[in-house]
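Researcher: Go.
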Amino acid sequence: MQTVGRVAVIGGGTMGSGIAYVTALAGFPTGLYDVFPQQLTQARAYHNTLLDKGVHKGRLSPADAEASAARITYTGDLAEALTDADMVIEAAPENMALKKELFGQFETLVGDEAILGSNTSSLPITEIATAVSKRERVIGVHFFNPAPVMQLIEIIRGIETSQASVEAVVEFARQLGKEPVVVKDFPGFVTTRVGLMLISEAIFALQEGVAERDELDKAMKLGYNLPMGPLALADLIGLDVALHILDAMFDNYKDARYRAPILLRKMVQAGHLGRKAGRGFYDY
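Model: Structure:
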């Protein structure tokens, strides 16, 4: 089985910086790339904060924290980030054209055996793989936010993804201390498809006046033992992100189940995007 020695994480935003922290903490030298220097500065500060908290709470020794920090290279040079990488994890925005452009570059800058992973939560791995010639090494590696806390990694097998690539990524996920689940390449996979249906139906229920916001979220939390209600979860994900995913699933499946609630669309139009905007279904 192919083993992973060095990791490259492409994208220094919320997900990418979280993934880089996880890989470095697990002992993997990690190159973190972003085209925007400010993102890398923010990622470094985020990592330092997490490591300091780990030491303060006794989960990490000062030496372990220092070693983890030293494993991360922050760079705006894609070639530098990809040097000697055995595992690439793309964590760029959910834009197919951008992802295919990046994967085309990856293939020219990494070795023939390097695994090319995407952290996409909804875009087809099979289509992303068309940007490279060795499509058997392209795979979905879907982390969850916040990556340092959430235990699941959803591993998505494209039509041409090899069994060897799947096995290598399953083992890699376990080395990170995560729980892998392997799924097929359908729009929304499992977690996004089912999770967005829960959020969508909750918004429909709110839109139709079945229950008020607080009562609806309370009912779902207590009735299904959820850590937060679906409306609060929508705010955490970002209402614009939720809308984009629902529209993408509707376009792919042509099934009315995946239509977006008009209330969600209107809130996005108004700029009420959830936590990141200070206002969504709740005020922050």
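Model: The CA atoms of residues 267 and 274 lie 9 Å apart.
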